[in-house]
TrEMBL record:
Taxonomic lineage of the native organism: Bacteria, Pseudomonadati, Pseudomonadota, Alphaproteobacteria, Rhodobacterales
Protein name listed in UniProt: Methylmalonyl-CoA mutase
Broad enzyme group: isomerase
Coiled-coil intervals: none
The protein's Enzyme Commission number: 5.4.99.2
UniProt cross-references to InterPro entries, sorted A to Z: Cobalamin-bd_sf (IPR036724)
Keyword field: Isomerase
GO MF entry, a single one: methylmalonyl-CoA mutase activity
Record has Isomerase as a keyword: yes
Keyword Manganese in annotation: no
Length: 46
């Protein structure tokens, strides 16, 4: 699972423990996020 949006920093640890692989907040660099998501997909499929 990948999350994005206005998520309070104090919730990040809970989300990661719940299985979230990446969290993208406001101002995220879209090309960098896309590369990270593709890396997550590749790693998960392997």
């Amino acid at each position: 699972m990948i999350c994005g949006g206005v998520i309070p920093q104090q919730d990040y640890e809970f989300l990661k423990k719940a299985g979230v692989k990446a969290i993208f907040g406001p101002g995220t660099n879209i090309p960098a996020a896309a590369r990270e998501i593709l890396d997550i997909i590749r790693t998960t499929r392997s």
